[in-house]
């Protein structure tokens, strides 16, 4: 499978899984937090959207390394569900209350924009707009792979939140 099709499928699958988790939720469930230090499902989705809006590829540079060299490290970091990370301030959820239909539409729009924007681009050059913490500059393919893996991680988080709020009495929001 050609790499543009491969990454499009990965992104599509990740976004579709997130959408499938959100669709059956009520507005109340979307806002509920398992505890004071956790995010609600709405906040998790907002974080996903903030991190998935674009990749820093306004300035690019050819590289001699493999276009997907850092993908295994990205997967190792983000699919280790026991590891906890602090999000940068700029990536934190922006609200306390979220509208389900608006979040679903934003997820669909984000998915479409990423796939359409990158379907014909060369995914092999390094994106020089921003370095990834501890990994340096990533290729377009690696940035898009990060987005897919990051969404997967947060889908697991959404599932855990939903399990926790199911076992607790419903709270009014």
UniProtKB/TrEMBL annotation:
| Regions that span the bilayer | none
Domain (DinB-like): give its ranges. 13-158
Query: Under what name is this protein listed?
Result: DinB family protein
Q: Which SUPFAM superfamilies match?
A: DinB/YfiT-like putative metalloenzymes
What is the species listed in this Swiss-Prot or TrEMBL entry? Sphingobacterium humi
Q: Which Pfam families match?
A: DinB_2 (PF12867)
């Amino acid at each position: 499978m050609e790499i543009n099709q491969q990454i499009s499928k990965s992104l599509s699958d990740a976004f579709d899984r997130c959408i499938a988790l959100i669709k059956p939720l009520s507005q109340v469930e979307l806002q509920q937090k398992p505890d004071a230090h956790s995010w609600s499902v709405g906040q998790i989705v907002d974080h996903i959207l903030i991190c998935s809006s674009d990749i820093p590829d306004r300035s690019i540079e050819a590289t001699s390394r493999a276009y997907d060299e850092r993908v295994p490290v990205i997967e190792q970091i983000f699919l280790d569900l026991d590891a906890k990370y602090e999000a940068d301030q700029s990536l934190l959820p922006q609200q306390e209350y979220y509208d389900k239909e608006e979040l679903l539409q934003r997820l669909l729009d984000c998915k479409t924009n990423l796939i359409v924007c990158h379907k014909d681009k060369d995914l092999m050059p390094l994106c020089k707009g921003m370095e990834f913490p501890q990994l340096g500059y990533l290729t377009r393919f690696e940035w898009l792979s990060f987005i897919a893996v990051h969404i997967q991680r947060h889908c697991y988080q959404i599932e855990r939140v939903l399990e926790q709020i199911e076992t607790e009495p419903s709270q009014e929001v």
